[in-house]
Design goal:
Elements: E1 2-8, H1 29-42, E2 49-56, H2 64-76, E3 80-90, H3 97-105, E4 110-116, H4 120-126, H5 132-145, E5 150-156, H6 163-176, E6 180-185, H7 193-199, H8 208-224, E7 228-231, E8 234-236, H9 243-249, E9 254-257, E10 262-264, E11 268-272, H10 276-284, E12 290-294, H11 297-308, E13 315-316, H12 322-337, E14 341-344, E15 347-350, H13 352-355, H14 358-365
Helix pairs in contact: 1-2, 1-10, 3-5, 6-8
């Protein structure tokens, strides 16, 4: 099996926290669509494609005709499974009855929507284009059109946010009864407008203890409502895990199409140039501009640690060499004794107490 990721970098405006490659140069959408279709044809998967994911940026900034051309290329040049999971990311304010109906006529069967928060004040702070009411309206419109697999993103850890405010956001998310919820603590990534505000002393990060309390409040509330906490930041109703993202955590190969998109084939990792003009110019000349690295055994081990331990199932120790297994278990001992890791059926996984300090645990298990 393989996954196909298509990066659509267009945004009508930039959110202050976003570190993903994107552009507000919407005039390039037609040439970019042509370039993406060229790259899909150039890089046909040798394995059946089980998931397709259009991310961004804001894929819903493309026209239906442009999206159709991309999907047509994906299906013409790849063997896509009949029951493939096909996801598109959207902004709530882009969702109209007309757009939803048009997407339903395409292979799209899963919608991922950036709700982020149900506070209009915090949405304005993030420079999001939608308001809280539009999230509910978008979900209702998608339901009326027949979409039965909807995911929303939620964010917490805003400057001055209280635990009660976060609980209110969780309540509103639960009221939508969507199939999947992805959650993230607000990150201050270098190079973003949000990071500059932090440097200027205009905002401050929340206290670590409050962040911990917010995280565990989230996990308890969603699990009690029937969501499976299947990955550190992801929750799903039964049968609705993100198959595409799960393939990343399971080390399944994927092809990344578009400017700044990453690809992985087990032995190598590559990434396209993070410049839309260079990407388009290259593809118009039939040339993919990219960099790559060959993954040695130690790097593959480290990658396995960082992805497998994110999941509920954890790390299958049988997948490691005897030397790697010995190293891993030796370094895991103090975390096993502290109750941060557990080992069941030869699988090493994080306990509830280990989830919040997962980065530290993973670092200890990795080869230096």
């Amino acid at each position: 099996m393989a996954g196909l990721y298509v990066h659509i970098p267009f945004c009508s405006s930039r959110c202050i926290y976003c570190g993903f490659y994107s552009t507000t140069g919407l005039a390039l959408r037609e040439r970019y669509t042509d370039a993406v279709c060229r790259e899909i044809k150039m890089r046909t998967s040798s394995k059946p494609v089980s998931t397709i994911y259009l991310g961004g940026g804001t894929p819903s900034q493309l026209s239906i005709d442009q999206l159709k051309r991309i999907f047509d290329s994906a299906y013409i040049y790849n063997k896509v499974e009949n029951r493939a999971e096909v996801t598109i990311e959207m902004n709530p304010d882009d969702v109209t009855a007309e757009l939803a109906a048009a997407l339903k006529a395409l292979p799209v069967n899963r919608i991922s929507m950036g709700a982020q928060t149900f506070s209009d004040e915090r949405l304005r702070f993030l420079h999001r284009r939608h308001n809280a009411a539009q999230v509910k309206e978008a979900v209702e419109t998608l339901r009326q059109t027949g979409f039965q697999n909807i995911s929303i993103d939620l964010m917490y850890g805003f400057p001055n946010q209280t635990l009660d405010e976060w609980k209110a956001d969780i309540d509103k998310a639960l009221a939508l009864n969507v199939e999947h919820i992805s959650t993230y603590c607000l990150m201050y990534e270098e190079g973003t407008p949000l990071y500059r505000l932090l440097e200027q002393g205009k905002v401050s990060e929340i206290d670590e203890e409050l962040e911990r309390e917010m995280y565990y409040t989230l996990t308890e509330r969603l699990e009690s409502d029937g969501y499976e906490h299947y990955e550190i930041s992801n929750f799903a109703r039964t049968g609705y895990r993100s198959r595409h993202n799960s393939s990343y955590w399971q080390g399944i190969p994927y092809i990344g199409i578009g400017a700044a998109a990453h690809s992985f084939d087990v032995q190598t990792r590559s990434w396209n140039v993070a410049d839309i003009q260079q990407y388009i110019a290259g593809m118009e000349q039939g040339q993919r501009i990219f960099e790559h690295e060959t993954l040695d055994e130690d790097t593959r081990y480290n990658d396995t640690i960082t992805v497998a331990l994110r999941t509920r199932e954890g790390l299958n120790l049988d997948t490691l060499s005897s030397e790697q297994r010995t190293y891993c278990l030796t370094n895991a001992q103090r975390h096993l004794k502290a109750g941060l890791l557990k080992c069941t059926d030869n699988k090493l996984s994080l306990t509830k107490n280990g989830l919040f300090v997962s980065d530290m645990i993973m670092s200890d298990l990795m080869l230096i």
